[in-house]
Amino acid sequence: MPSPMKSSSSPTTLILMLKASVNYYIKNAALGLSIPITLVLDNARYQKCKLVQELADSLGIELLYLPSYSPNLNLIERLWKYAHEEMFVLQILS
Questions:
Q1: Which of 27, 28, 55, 78 would give a disulfide with 33, using CB separation of 3.0 to 4.6 Å?
Q2: What is the dihedral of CA 53, 54, 59, 60, to 10 degrees?
Q3: Is the pLDDT higher at 8 or at 46?
Q4: Which H or E run includes 19?
Q5: Would you say 24 and 61 are in contact if contact means Cβ atoms under 8 Å apart?
Q6: Which residues 6+ apart lie within 8 Å of 30 measured at CB?
Q7: Of 52, 53, 66, 54, residue with least CA distance to 16
């Protein structure tokens, strides 16, 4: 079974992100800082599962979902576009 940290497409990885966010919040709270936590997610099914939403609620984390079919708002999509263009140029030049 692959490590959950190597894949960003599972509830396990999202739960680890939620817990890391809470640890960050606790460290800032100890310093007297009050910082709300909002995670911006796309609309993948595993991100909207009941387990993830209940955990986020219990930890006081707001989940903000990007609109469907909005690759311009998802930064990783821009990176993939750039990578594909670079690979295309390299294929032409070689």
A1: 28
A2: 60
A3: 46
A4: helix 11-30
A5: no
A6: none
A7: 52
Closest CA to 25 of 62, 74, 51, 76: 62
List pLDDT tens digits, range 20-38.
877 777 777 667 766 777 8
Question: What is the average per-residue pLDDT within 41-58?
Answer: 82
List phi, psi (to 5°) of 35. Answer: -120, 120
Provide DSSP, 53-80: HHHHHHHTEEEEEPPTT-GGG-HHHHHH
The DSSP letter of residue 21 is H
The pair of three-digit structure tokens given for residue 80, joined into one six-digit string = 């993939």
* Cα–Cα separations (whole angstroms), residue 16 to 21, 32, 85: 9, 24, 33
The pTM is what? 0.51
